[in-house]
Amino acid sequence: MEKKLKSYTKWGILLAALMGVSLHFLYDLTGNSVWAGLFSPVNESVWEHMKLAFFPLFVYFLYEIFRIRKKVPSLSRASAWGILTGTFVIPVVYYTYTGILGRHILAVDIATLLLAIFLGFSRQRKIIGQSSFLPTGNGFLPWGLVILTGLCFFAFTFQPPSLPLFFGP
Q1: For residue range 69-104, what is the model confidence (pLDDT) as tens digits?
Q2: What percentage of the chain has pLDDT greater than the value 70?
């Protein structure tokens, strides 16, 4: 199973990265479709760019759960924590580096997305690796947070709060 997980990880990181980069352009390519806007950035805010990690990780980890969950009992809970980790790495890294440099750099923003996806997978795999040492739990908390985050993406896409996270650079 370890070899299969490594293969899923390699392909998953590649596919999630391609999905994330593609999502960046989806809203404009669809003529500002409301449906596309729910899953892809509608502006240049940090909040909207968090979607670039959230939805690809969500989709790929659901695929994994349906394919191999019986062989990896902690996969569902680990996947939820991986989605959350990858998603929230983006604002942490962005605000840290722009706070230090005083500006944003496109190449660093792209690298941040790739780092977020990598760390999402890393978190998932670390939890899977520790599953024999940790209590199994039911995954209610992490999946509740994933669902809440997804609902917030939908709700705040066209009616964002007046907070800096939702402002463009």
Answers
A1: 888 888 999 999 999 999 999 999 999 999 999 999
A2: 95
Candidates 45, 53, 37; CA nearest to 114 is 53
pTM: 0.93
How far apart CA 89 and CA 37 sit, in angstroms, is 21
Give the sign of the dihedral formed by CA 36, CA 28, CA 118, CA 50.
negative
User: Which residue in the block uniquely carries the two structure tokens 């899923």?
Assistant: 8
**Tokens describing residue 90:** 């983006």
Please give the DSSP secondary-structure letter assigned to residue 77: H
Instruction: Enumerate long-range contacts of 58-62, CB under 8 Å, 24 or more apart.
Output: 58/83, 58/146, 58/150, 59/19, 60/12, 60/15, 60/16, 60/19, 61/12, 61/124
